[in-house]
Specification:
Strands 3-2-1-4-5-6 form a six-stranded parallel β-sheet, with helices on both faces. The protein has a five-stranded antiparallel β-sheet with strand order 7-8-11-9-10, with helices on one face. It is of the alpha/beta class. The chain is globular. 28% of the residues lie in helices and 25% in strands. The longest helix is centred in the last third of the chain and has 15 residues. The chain contains six helices and eleven strands. It has two domains: 128 residues, NAD(P)-binding Rossmann-like Domain (Rossmann fold), CATH 3.40.50.720; 79 residues, Regulator of K+ conductance, C-terminal domain (Alpha-Beta Plaits, 2-Layer Sandwich).
């Protein structure tokens, strides 16, 4: 995937290096050239400039980007970058870092996934940018049961939540919608950007991956 990271602070640099190591094409944008020195073992491209400057985004090949993370130190900058990426460049997977949690609901209503600073981790942003990520949140001591989070693929939005249960191996135990978690999911239909919480066996982990991969292919 071709991914743009706007902001090269601690989070941005960590995210960019991890994505680069995984083989993705990564471009990092930051207004401060010195910040780009944080990048070590990085195989992508760096650009000095603003993440909402059209010339900079042209250099970053935004028209072919699959995902963008806006992780500068300013909420307004991050939201502006995210909205331009989504609305003008049709980048499908966009996420913005937010320092003021009170603003998060507003931005979610605009269709921009946000993560508050206090909750931010590299894995969380990757979950939005790479919906097919196979990360495991928790595993029992016997390595037979796992808790995983997955984002609803667009193709499965509107389907009954019960469609995500697979035999005895995959059980949907909750979801996060609009920043609010709930465990009573009976009768619900999946929506875009829902985060689904599953308990799965080892076989179920593979079955869930196949289900979501088929929907995104």
């Amino acid at each position: 995937m071709h991914i743009i990271v706007v902001g090269c602070g601690r989070v941005g640099s960590e995210l960019a290096m991890e994505l680069s190591e995984e083989g993705h094409s990564v471009v990092v944008i930051d207004k401060n050239r010195d910040n780009l020195r944080r990048l070590t073992h990085f195989h992508g491209k760096t650009i000095v400039g603003s993440g909402f400057d059209r010339d900079v985004l042209f250099q970053a090949e935004a028209t072919t980007a699959d995902a963008l993370a806006a992780v500068t130190s300013g909420d307004n900058t991050n939201i502006l970058c995210a909205r331009i990426a989504r609305d003008h460049y049709s980048i499908k997977n966009v996420v913005a870092r937010i320092y003021d949690p009170a603003r998060a609901d507003i931005y979610m209503k605009l269709g921009i996934p946000t993560v508050a600073t206090s909750l931010w981790t590299t894995q969380q942003v990757k979950r939005w940018m790479l919906p097919s990520d196979d990360a495991i949140e928790w595993t029992d001591t016997g390595n037979t049961m796992h808790l995983v989070e997955r984002i609803v693929p667009d193709a499965l939005a509107g389907k009954p939540i019960t469609n995500f249960n697979i035999g005895e191996n995959v059980r949907l135990v909750g979801l996060i919608r609009g920043g609010q978690g709930r465990v009573n999911v009976e009768g619900l239909f999946a929506q875009e950007d829902d985060i689904l919480e599953f308990l799965v066996t080892n076989d179920g982990l593979r079955q869930l991956h196949d289900l979501l991969a088929t929907a995104t292919s």
